[in-house]
């Protein structure tokens, strides 16, 4: 069965600092991986996705993530944090290039706070 | 196209009452999903439809839960005899086949 684990339920960084949100996955085959963002009182929005093409994936709002098979990781980074990045971030997995899947399996989330 | 909409946005009910939520997907999307998100957790899959057919149900979906999508457009999720443990955010998403799932704003249920 597939799963994801997000390390750290809350991360706080200063405005302009590097953002690093950690995610490790468990899957018998290289999975499709996603990062979603959820702003207060809003639905989930897809930031980026990995589907077995380039291992470095660029998303919206300056975020990117790198798929590392040897470490079973898919960490999310942004070089310079902005106040508007404050939100809940979810790592997720759904299917693989060998087997499509409909449901998305989410991690427990990491709340990102930005200090002025 | 206004995205996925859900109604109501908030529902407060007493234990034992029945509640029904509605989801209107993006009009051209053939797949519709329901997820449940409890406080401090990520969303958990409940069920999904392709057109009007319900193709998968999670074991989380007890007998008190029922979902329908009668004409392959909007969907309803009903919870009978609500319990305090049903308090959560109920999220709906839609997609075209296995494409990106677009999420609605959710319905927050509070069971007193």
Describe the fold and architecture:
The complex is a heterodimer of chains A (116) and B (112). Helix content of chain A is 0%, strand content 56%. Chain A has 116 residues and is an all-beta fold. In chain A, the strands form two sheets. In chain A, strands 2, 4, 5, 9, 10 and 11 form a six-stranded mixed beta sheet that branches. Chain A is globular. The N and C termini of chain A lie far apart (41 Å). Chain B has 112 residues and is mainly β. Chain B has no helices and eleven strands. Chain B has strands at 5-7, 10-13, 19-24, 31-37, 44-50, 53-57, 65-68, 75-79, 88-95, 102-103, 107-111. In chain B, strands 2, 4, 5, 6, 9, 10 and 11 form a seven-stranded mixed beta sheet that branches. A four-stranded antiparallel beta sheet of chain B has the order 1-3-8-7, with no helix packed on it. In chain B, strand 5 (44-50) and strand 6 (53-57) form a beta hairpin. Chain B starts with a strand and ends with a strand.
What keywords describe this structure?
heterodimer, A: mainly beta, six-stranded mixed sheet, five-stranded antiparallel sheet, 0% helix, B: 112 residues, mainly beta, four-stranded antiparallel sheet
Architecture blueprint of SSEs:
The complex is a heterodimer of chains A (116) and B (112).
Chain A: E1 3-7, E2 10-14, E3 19-26, E4 31-38, E5 44-50, E6 56-58, E7 64-68, E8 73-78, E9 87-96, E10 105-106, E11 110-115
Parallel strand pairs in A: 2-11
Antiparallel strand pairs in A: 1-3, 3-8, 4-5, 4-9, 6-7, 7-8, 9-10, 9-11
Chain B: E1 5-7, E2 10-13, E3 19-24, E4 31-37, E5 44-50, E6 53-57, E7 65-68, E8 75-79, E9 88-95, E10 102-103, E11 107-111
Parallel strand pairs in B: 2-11
Antiparallel strand pairs in B: 1-3, 3-8, 4-5, 4-9, 5-6, 7-8, 9-10, 9-11
